[in-house]
């Protein structure tokens, strides 16, 4: 169920789709990781849909100098989805918080959500949680998900009252199995905090360090994604395959789309039924195009 906000949020969104994708070699020798297919859509569609579902209409896509033209070719100016896209280059992969520094003049003091281009989040009431995070007047909100291998991620631990106690990046001895996902919401101070982050031992600006600044002042909200939710980080071959299989299963068995910006745009009221039909026709004789066309036609009949 898509939760439509009563008023547009002033929040802006950043979709970070950089990096070299070395864990997916040789596939990523010729194409950006975030342009690889996850079942029937490019990987980047999934985090893009999440940002749009949060009510965000101004979105910046950041990628490498080599890959950015391909994202422009795929996504255009955003008008096909009723939103606005900006594009920026990340010359070298120096860490996630670098995205805020790259987008400094564009942000102009706005609150901001950041989504990593290889993350897929699926939940029945995700839209409600996203709007809650976007509407929070102060502080930061991150989403945590239980995993079997927390040592691969930024891990958040909690005290006896379930308040976030500590966040550690790739801990040797994790204090919990709650991993922080690649979706972050920040107030309009995020740029100031990002400028305080220093490179880690591996030479990168760590998003965990940025989140820790909010945690230390008592302004970090951690939303736990529980049963009925799925978070997939499609950064290695196994997880890329699992993500495709998951999307196929949901769409084939339940008849609902996962990670379709056009569907989200239509349900959020960003585009009309006629606009959706035109978009569906451009998909040719694909199952995705058929579903989108039927969705638009059903809406016209109801009205």
Automatic annotation (TrEMBL):
Class of this enzyme: transferase
Cofactor(s) needed by this chain: Mg(2+)
Pfam family, one: NTP_transferase
GO terms for MF: glucose-1-phosphate thymidylyltransferase activity; metal ion binding
EC number: 2.7.7.24
Domain Nucleotidyl transferase intervals: 12-248
Keyword Repeat: no
Catalysed reactions, semicolon-separated: dTTP + alpha-D-glucose 1-phosphate + H(+) = dTDP-alpha-D-glucose + diphosphate
Domain of life: Bacteria
Keywords tagged on the record: Magnesium, Metal-binding, Nucleotidyltransferase, Transferase
Key word Cell cycle present: no
Function of the protein: Catalyzes the formation of dTDP-glucose, from dTTP and glucose 1-phosphate, as well as its pyrophosphorolysis.
Family statement drawn from the similarity comment of this UniProt entry: Belongs to the glucose-1-phosphate thymidylyltransferase family.
Protein name stated in the entry: Glucose-1-phosphate thymidylyltransferase
Organism: Acetobacter pomorum
Gene name as annotated: rfbA
């Amino acid at each position: 169920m898509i939760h439509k906000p009563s008023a547009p949020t002033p929040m802006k969104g950043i979709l970070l789709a950089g990096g070299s994708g070395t864990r997916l070699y040789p596939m990523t020798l010729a194409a950006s990781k975030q342009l690889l297919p996850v079942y029937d859509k490019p990987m980047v569609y999934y985090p893009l849909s999440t940002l749009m579902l949060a009510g965000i209409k101004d979105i910046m896509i950041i990628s490498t100098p080599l890959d950015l033209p391909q994202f422009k070719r795929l996504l255009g100016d955003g008008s096909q989805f009723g939103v606005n896209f900006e594009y920026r280059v990340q010359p070298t992969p120096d860490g996630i918080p670098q995205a805020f520094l790259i987008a400094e003049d564009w942000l102009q003091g706005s609150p901001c959500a950041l989504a990593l281009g290889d993350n897929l989040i699926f939940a029945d009431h995700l839209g409600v949680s996203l709007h809650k995070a976007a509407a929070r007047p102060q502080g930061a909100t991150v989403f945590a998900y239980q995993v079997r291998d927390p040592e691969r991620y930024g891990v958040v631990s909690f005290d006896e009252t379930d308040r976030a106690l500590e966040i550690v990046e790739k801990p040797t001895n994790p204090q919990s199995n709650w991993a922080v996902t690649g979706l972050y919401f920040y107030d309009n101070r995020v740029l100031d905090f990002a400028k305080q982050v220093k490179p880690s031992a591996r030479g990168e600006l760590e998003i965990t360090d940025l989140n820790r600044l909010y945690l230390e002042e008592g302004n970090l909200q951690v939303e736990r994604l529980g049963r009925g939710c799925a978070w997939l980080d499609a950064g290695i071959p196994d997880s890329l395959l699992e993500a495709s299989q998951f999307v196929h299963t949901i769409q084939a068995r339940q008849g609902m789309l996962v990670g379709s910006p056009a569907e989200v745009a239509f349900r959020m009221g960003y585009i009309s039924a006629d606009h959706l039909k035109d978009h569906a026709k451009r998909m040719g004789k694909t199952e995705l195009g058929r579903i989108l066309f039927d969705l638009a036609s059903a809406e016209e009949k109801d009205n």
